[in-house]
Amino acid sequence: MTKKPEATAQALDIVRIYTKDLSLEVPSAPEIFRETAQPEINLDLDIKNKDLEENHYEVELIVTVTAKMNDKNVFLIEVKQAGIFHVAGFTDEQKEHILHAYCPTVLFPYTREAVNSLVTRASLPPLTLAPINFDLLYAQNKGLIPQGEGEGSQTKH
Questions:
Q1: Within 10 A of 12 (CB to CB), how many other CB atoms are there?
Q2: Which terminal residue of the chain, N or C, has fewer Cβ atoms less than 10 Å from its own Cβ?
Q3: Range of 68's domain?
Q4: 7 falls within a domain
Q5: Which H, E and C letters describe 64-127, residue by residue?
Q6: What's the domain count of the chain?
Q7: How far apart (Å, rounded) are the C-alpha atoms in residues 97 and 81?
Q8: pTM (two decimals)
Q9: What is the pLDDT of residues 78-136, one digit of tens each?
Q10: Does residue 83 contact residue 16 with C-beta atoms inside 8 Å?
Q11: 142 CB contacts (<8 Å, ≥6 apart)?
């Protein structure tokens, strides 16, 4: 009797979540505080991941938020929120989806809180970033959904 190979157990664990880098620039302060117009906000996203060891990966969500008002830079914020994730027993396709959609979804609330905190510390009105559908962005980047469909967002991946 031939013994069947055992299926590898799937595991997906958050090992650690941490802020890797944080920066805030308010180049037009204090003059900008007298402005009354609404700033134009621009959000850029990037996701990087790195194979660490034995099914452990670092996933880094990089969010850059810029605000301009009347051709003046109000602020520039960059947050690099990272996490170490244990991902085992998945196909390569499943693992790619986890690293580019699930893990950034886990990291985003921490990033959103950091952005809001930095804007408030700069003595500017609070800024709460809208939720981001990383599953949709992943599908768009893979060409599974045309770029214009769904909840579009000005992001790069």
A1: 16
A2: N
A3: 12-141
A4: no
A5: EEEEEECCEEEEEEEEEEEEEEEEECCCHHHHHHHHHHHHHHHHHHHHHHHHHHHHHHCCCCCC
A6: 1
A7: 18
A8: 0.84
A9: 999 999 999 999 999 999 999 999 999 999 999 999 999 999 999 998 899 999 999 99
A10: yes
A11: none
Any residues with CB less than 8 A from the CB of 5 and at least 6 apart, and which?
none
Q: 3 lies in a domain?
A: no
| Angstrom distance (rounded) from CA 13 to CA 11 | 6
Pairing outcome for strands 56-69 and 40-53? antiparallel
Helix (H, G, I), strand (E, B) or coil at 134: helix
Which of 80, 75, 82, 154 minimizes the C-alpha distance to 118? 75
Q: What is the C-alpha separation between 115 and 2, in angstroms, rounded?
A: 58
What CATH code is carried by the domain that includes residue 121?
Answer: 3.10.420.10
Q: Pairing state of beta strands 40-53 and 11-25?
A: unpaired
* DSSP 8-class letter at 137: H
Residue located via tokens 């180049």: 27
Domain assignment of residue 4, yes or no: no
Q: Which amino acid is at 8?
A: T
Q: What digits encode the pLDDT tens for the residues 80-90? A: 999 999 999 99
